[in-house]
Specification:
The chain is mostly helical and 144 residues long. The chain has helices spanning 5-27, 34-77, 79-85, 88-98, 117-120; strands at residues 104-105, 110-111. A hairpin with a 4-residue loop joins strand 1 (104-105) and strand 2. Strands 1-2 form a two-stranded antiparallel ribbon. It has 2 domains: 5-77; 89-130, no CATH class. 62% of the residues lie in helices and 3% in strands. It is elongated, with a radius of gyration of 30 Å. It starts with a helix and ends in a 24-residue tail after the last helix. Helix 1 (5-27) packs antiparallel against helix 2.
Length: 144
């Protein structure tokens, strides 16, 4: 099971402290006998191992996400070069990625019924100039 990185790190720290308490109880305080010590230590070590595996899984997942995002950025930024260098099968896959529903041609222009969801984030603003300031200058316009 994959946990968030902070939760896994907290779990590891809690288990390290628990292990230290068990060792201290046996070695320095003499509060527990050898059998109890070995039993508790084995249980804590097992939990620590599982927590380390979870920690490793979160690092792998994070690495995979970063790698995937880097590849997606490369794919978008270098799509024309990739198209030129690609073979037929790779071009078909790129075309399917960028134009999932294909292209349509009405005799005058090409249209894309549906584009890659990534490009939806690149659409322009709904109204031209909606975030621009008025051209009146720095002073506010006062009634005459």
């Amino acid at each position: 099971m994959i946990y968030c990185r902070a939760a896994v790190a907290q779990r590891l720290e809690t288990l390290r402290q628990r292990k230290e308490r068990v060792v201290n109880a046996y070695l320095y305080e003499g509060a527990i006998d050898k059998e109890t010590y070995q039993s508790h230590l084995a249980r804590v070590e097992e939990e620590l191992t599982l927590a380390r595996i979870d920690h490793y899984d979160t690092e792998i997942e994070e690495f995979d996400i970063e790698g995937t995002l880097a590849f997606a950025e490369h794919l978008i930024n270098e799509s024309s070069r990739l198209w030129i260098e690609a073979g037929l099968a790779q071009r078909q896959r790129l075309q399917k990625l960028f134009f999932p529903k294909g292209l349509s041609y009405d005799g005058e222009e090409f249209r894309t019924p549906l584009t890659c969801p990534f490009f939806n984030n690149l659409e322009g603003t709904p109204e031209p100039g909606w975030r621009l300031v008025a051209r009146t200058g720095f002073e506010p316009v006062l009634p005459a």
